[in-house]
């Protein structure tokens, strides 16, 4: 992880001066404030600010004053009910603002989650650092033969070495040209034009502010085992933060989103037939071959 000396000084300064507040705070989240959590080789996630806690979700659901209820058990039960029945609005009462350093190609996946506020480092105004994501050898895979957007088996050691050599060489060459183009004593090209030559594995940074409902949607997709590794590790890091911030909501999220499955009406029909003793096959299921495979995966756990 690369945190600049200026950023580290800012973190230490912010953490050394706690502020008194009348608003409710989450003790679990307080320990994460400003601290950079390392992700990948040069990236990180850090909490800049947040609003709300588990009690805020309950308060919004009941539209009451003060804490939602004096009973902790009732609060957790209400949150589980809300999560179970897809009542999303109370979860929108909690928000978090993150500072994220990530490769550009990961950012392009991340930005597909549009219900958030984003402000990214400007390569029109500033010069990007010479930092590139290089995958570890155990993350360099061949194209999957069953999933057009996924990875298959690991490459051979020889091919892995060739890939890393090409990635490092191309990144260095592109950045050298970038520096040459923007050099005021040389070409002096506008930064907004020179940036087009930079590869997608260069690191960018942004502030990303999102409410808990939309954050959990992000995590459901990006912390999933089928998500691309490079964005999944960011989601995994954020999961640990959310678990400390709103533990009741996160446990309900694990049970009713991450650990749950969704079945189509055809799947439910097949399941009922199986439970009644009927032998159901792909041919008699009424499902496509792909859906049948997904159904088998659900049954096998």
UniProtKB/TrEMBL annotation:
Entry's EC annotation: 2.1.1.148
GO molecular function: flavin adenine dinucleotide binding; NADPH binding; thymidylate synthase (FAD) activity; thymidylate synthase activity
Binding site for dUMP: 109-112, 120-124, 195, 222
Active site residues per record: 222 (involved in ionization of n3 of dump, leading to its activation)
Bound cofactor: record note: Binds 4 FAD per tetramer. Each FAD binding site is formed by three monomers.
Keyword annotations of the record: FAD, Flavoprotein, Methyltransferase, NADP, Nucleotide biosynthesis, Transferase
InterPro entries referenced in this protein's UniProt entry, alphabetically: Thymidylate_synthase_ThyX, Thymidylate_synthase_ThyX_sf
Reactions that this protein is recorded to catalyse: dUMP + (6R)-5,10-methylene-5,6,7,8-tetrahydrofolate + NADPH + H(+) = dTMP + (6S)-5,6,7,8-tetrahydrofolate + NADP(+)
Cofactor: FAD
Gene Ontology process terms (BP): dTMP biosynthetic process; dTTP biosynthetic process; methylation
UniProt: FAD binding residues: 89, 112-114, 120, 211-213, 217
Pathway: Pyrimidine metabolism; dTTP biosynthesis
Top enzyme category: transferase
UniProt superkingdom: Bacteria
Gene3D superfamilies: 3.30.1360.170
Family statement: Belongs to the thymidylate synthase ThyX family.
Subunit structure: Homotetramer.
Function per UniProt: Catalyzes the reductive methylation of 2'-deoxyuridine-5'-monophosphate (dUMP) to 2'-deoxythymidine-5'-monophosphate (dTMP) while utilizing 5,10-methylenetetrahydrofolate (mTHF) as the methyl donor, and NADPH and FADH(2) as the reductant.
Protein name: Flavin-dependent thymidylate synthase
Origin species: Marimonas arenosa
Gene that produces this protein: thyX
């Amino acid at each position: 992880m690369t945190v600049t000396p200026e950023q580290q000084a800012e973190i230490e300064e912010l953490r050394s001066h706690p502020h008194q507040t009348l608003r409710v705070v989450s003790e679990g989240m307080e320990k994460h404030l400003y601290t950079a959590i390392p992700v990948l080789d040069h990236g990180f996630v850090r909490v800049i600010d947040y609003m709300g806690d588990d009690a805020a979700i309950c308060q919004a659901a009941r539209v009451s004053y003060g804490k939602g209820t004096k009973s902790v058990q009732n609060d957790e039960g209400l949150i589980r009910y809300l999560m179970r029945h897809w009542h999303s609005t109370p979860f929108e009462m909690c928000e978090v603002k993150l500072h994220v350093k990530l490769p550009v190609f990961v950012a392009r996946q991340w930005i597909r989650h549009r219900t958030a506020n984003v402000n990214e480092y400007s390569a029109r105004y500033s010069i990007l650092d010479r930092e590139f994501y290089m995958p570890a050898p155990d993350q360099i895979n061949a194209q999957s033969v069953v999933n057009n957007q996924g990875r298959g088996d690991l490459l051979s050691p020889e091919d892995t070495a060739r890939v890393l050599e090409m990635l490092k060489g191309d990144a260095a060459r592109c950045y050298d040209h970038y520096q040459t183009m923007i050099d005021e004593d040389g070409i002096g090209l506008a930064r907004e034009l020179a940036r087009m030559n930079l590869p997608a594995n260069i690191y960018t940074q942004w502030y990303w502010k999102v409410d808990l409902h939309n954050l959990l949607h992000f995590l459901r997709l990006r912390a999933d085992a089928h998500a691309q590794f490079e964005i999944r590790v960011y989601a995994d890091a954020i999961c640990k933060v959310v678990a400390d911030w709103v533990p009741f909501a996160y446990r309900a999220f694990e049970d009713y989103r991450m650990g749950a499955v969704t079945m189509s009406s055809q799947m439910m029909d097949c399941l009922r037939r199986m439970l009644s003793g009927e032998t159901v096959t792909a041919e008699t299921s009424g499902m496509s071959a792909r859906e049948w495979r997904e159904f088998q995966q659900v049954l096998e756990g």
